[in-house]
Automatic annotation (TrEMBL):
Chain coiled-coil ranges: none
Recorded GO MF terms: oxidoreductase activity
Swiss-Prot/TrEMBL keywords: Membrane, Transmembrane, Transmembrane helix
Span of domain Oxidoreductase molybdopterin-binding: 287-422
Entry keyword annotation includes Transmembrane helix: yes
Domain of life: Bacteria
Residue intervals passing through the bilayer: 37-64, 101-122, 143-162, 174-192
Protein name: Oxidoreductase molybdopterin-binding domain-containing protein
Lineage: Bacteria, Bacillati, Actinomycetota, Actinomycetes, Kitasatosporales
InterPro entries given in the database record: Mopterin_OxRdtase_euk, OxRdtase_Mopterin-bd_dom, OxRdtase_Mopterin-bd_sf
Length: 425
């Protein structure tokens, strides 16, 4: 016997139940928390936070003086995106320390806010049809770029901070170009949504739409309670990260940062580093005091100086921090050595000029670096031989390292082998 026909109403009901199990169905999303007020509050927090992140990120890029020399520029063919670049200043000495500390700490602090915001708008990614009009299509495209770009920027940033970068290609161009794509989508989205967001937060109107569940589940927490959980998560991340920009007890609270915890040693050389001599594959035979020579090249030719020769030159002291792109930094250390501008004068440059610095380092990025004339000319910029009253140890760049105020840590080259003075542009 044949199977009895299924009534049309029953078949339609079955299809409806199946559709509800798909993310394209409004009934799939049942949380009562989603709504324009919740999303608007998160959006306004991100509007302020991401704007600060973008500005500090651009400043961090400028600090590398990327248009000075190819060795500094990890982002070739930047074209119009480099319109804002300027000669990075040396004053105040803590400028890069502040900029990068804010950039990294704020970025980590905003992670719960970003994830909550993405969760709150995820139903919009599945709405059908994909585009109801040109304006709707542009909004959907900006939303996809916003979500994808935000995740990409935060993930690559966190991986770089954790010194465990695994994306193919250099972090610098990927993060730089990704930031411009993300921020362009962010601005477009903000222009479209800011008026409604302000109305929602002021409580003038709760606009119902794609974010509201048609048949929500019973609430287990209020929207304000959910915001409290998000804020608590951000405060937790802030409290376990911000200490990497300080010394002493504060650093020990930075349990989520690679340079948190106790100092890596005691004594004058017992402060933070990124690259050890072993990691950089420094050959101790090359850095021995009787074997190492600094090669100076400039307008009048080339000089070769031993460490003893350098120690007989006029020596000066500078109190300067070390600050790295990963956000960690040290307080001021007392460095003592020969001024870079005095070394330039030894090879015929009476006025400060650019310098190309080469290291004995064989492994890792930034084996070479370029510094601008204003950095060379600063009286605090040294080829340091000593720190905190003692010889540099191997991990801090013995027999000599560059130290420049307000420069990113990687431009304070360790294990210096050669300084070439002259216009690099």
């Amino acid at each position: 016997m044949g199977r009895a026909p299924v009534p049309a109403a029953v078949a339609a009901y079955g299809r409806s139940m199946r559709d509800q199990r798909l993310p394209t169905s409004p009934d799939f999303w049942r949380s009562p928390l989603r709504g324009t007020w919740f999303t608007s509050v998160l959006g306004l927090v991100l509007l302020a936070g991401i704007t600060v992140l973008f500005v500090t990120g651009l400043l961090s890029y400028a600090a590398y003086n990327p248009d000075l020399s190819p060795v500094n520029d990890q982002t070739p063919d930047k074209g119009l995106l480099g319109f804002y670049l300027f000669s990075w200043p040396t004053r105040p000495a803590w400028l890069y320390r502040l900029n990068q500390g804010v950039h990294v700490t704020l970025g980590i602090t905003l992670i719960p806010v970003l994830l909550a915001k993405l969760w709150s708008v995820v139903p919009k990614l599945f709405t059908l049809p994909p585009a109801r009009s040109l304006a709707h299509a542009l909004e959907r495209i900006s939303l996809l770029l916003l979500v994808g770009g935000g995740l990409f920027e935060f993930v690559t940033g966190v991986l770089n901070i954790q010194l465990d970068y695994v994306f193919p290609g250099s972090f610098y161009p990927l993060h730089f170009y990704g930031a411009w794509v993300f921020f362009a989508a962010f601005v477009a989205h903000a222009v479209l949504k800011l008026p409604a967001a302000l109305r929602n937060v002021r409580g003038l109107r709760e606009e119902r739409g794609e974010l509201h569940a048609p048949r929500p589940d019973p609430p287990t927490v209020s929207r304000r309670g959910a915001l409290g959980l998000v804020g608590g998560g951000s405060l937790l991340l802030f409290g376990t990260t911000v200490g990497h920009s300080f010394d002493g007890v504060a650093r020990q609270t930075a349990v989520l940062a690679p340079h948190g915890g106790s100092e890596p040693g005691s004594g004058p050389n017992g402060f933070q580093i990124n690259k050890t001599a072993a990691y950089a594959r420094i050959d101790p035979a090359e850095t021995a005091a009787d074997a190492w020579r600094l090669v100076l090249t400039g307008r009048t030719g080339t000089l070769r100086l031993s460490r003893a020769d350098l120690a007989r030159l006029p020596l000066y002291s500078s109190a300067l921090p070390i600050a790295c792109v990963e956000g960690w930094s040290t307080s001021n250390q007392w460095w003592r050595g020969v001024r870079l501008r005095d070394l330039a004068a030894l090879v015929g440059h009476d006025r400060p000029t650019d310098v190309y610095v080469e290291s004995l380092q064989r492994h890792g990025a930034f084996r070479h670096a370029a510094l601008r004339a204003n950095q060379v000319g600063d009286e605090r910029s040294l080829l340091a031989l000593y720190v905190n009253g003692e010889d540099l140890d191997p991990d801090h760049g013995f027999p000599a390292r560059v130290i420049v105020p307000a420069a990113p840590g990687v431009l304070n080259t360790k294990w210096v082998a050669r300084l070439t003075f002259g216009d690099l542009r």
